[in-house]
Fold this protein.
Amino acid sequence: MNILFVCTGNTCRSPMAEAIAANMVEGLGITVNSVGLFAWEGAPASQHSIECMRKIGLSLENHRARSITQEEFEKADLVLTMTQAHKDHILKAFSNTNDKTYTIYEYVGEGNDISDPYSLDYKAYENCANELNQLLKSASKKWRSKDPE
């Protein structure tokens, strides 16, 4: 299984989701990546994102922002976006998306958006990381129940 997380710039939310999810599925044969809809190619993860992940024993030190491409989208078995607006953008930009594209909240059976902490204080990033961690715990139960070919 190949999971792709999508946010706006690929420097805050989706890299944190990627790091958290990769840690949760380690050894299960599941690949996890992240991209942005409007990423500045090669930009590092935001400093607060790096600090939040370091605090829970994960690293974003080597993360570099990437924009979503047709190839990246096609490789994904599951695309999880941070917001409904991200999902709507993907549904318009790519074909054959309905059966594999969800907001994270939608995927776990709830309805909401992950707030963007970009340019806010550390606490906003920490809240975002905690929210992602809780949601991905629920999501990972679904991944573990599927054959991770």
